[in-house]
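[job 4417] fold queue: 2 targets
>>> target A
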Amino acid sequence: MYFLLIVPADYGLFPDRDTSERLAGIPGLYNCSETTIGDRFSASFDYQGDSTIVRLSEDHQRISVAGSGPASTRLAVLVAQALASLSLRLFDLDYSFDIPLDTGTSEQALRDQLEAIPQ
């Protein structure tokens, strides 16, 4: 399974309660759950016939978004908007890219950047 990882730009921790509440407020999320095994928060998201799952790690070090399709890129942009007060970075499990992510990042720009990465 392919994952997009979102971390604070300073590689610190996400704020404790605030992050879960902001993620839960993202429009379109469903099956929201707090404190599952290994996760502080998780939820599902559908977009353009694609589905993904977002998770905030129990240690508050990362947010993971499953997959790399339209739902994943849309959700990464929505996470950046929900956490507008934080500078974020986006990469994959292999660290094959490292993309700054902020409220100015558009869904299309992010998709273009991801598609330009050699597989």
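>>> target B
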Amino acid sequence: MNTEDLVKWGVIGLGAYLLWQWWQSAGNVVSAATAPFANWYVNFTTPPVTPLGNAIFANGTYVPMSMITPNWVGNSLQFTYLGVTYALSSHDANGNYPATPV
């Protein structure tokens, strides 16, 4: 391989790298610009869902899920009951969601 070939492949490699960097940054801009619209669309078209079953407290008390209004807080489904905020865990085999104070 001679010097001319090394320069040619170096320029091609540099051009490919710069094109790849530009493509990544353009993709990030598009994602950032379209994310609010996508979130609005999902919120607008997705009806609220109340899980079936019961919330079960540490003392063994059951409260039907239809009596509470859970809300997403980050990755946690939380609700307030009698002035205390609880987080729901995955349901057990009976459809009961363990509720732990936050």
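[job 4417] complete. Note on B: The beta strands are 54-56, 62-64, 71-73, 76-81, 84-88, 96-101.
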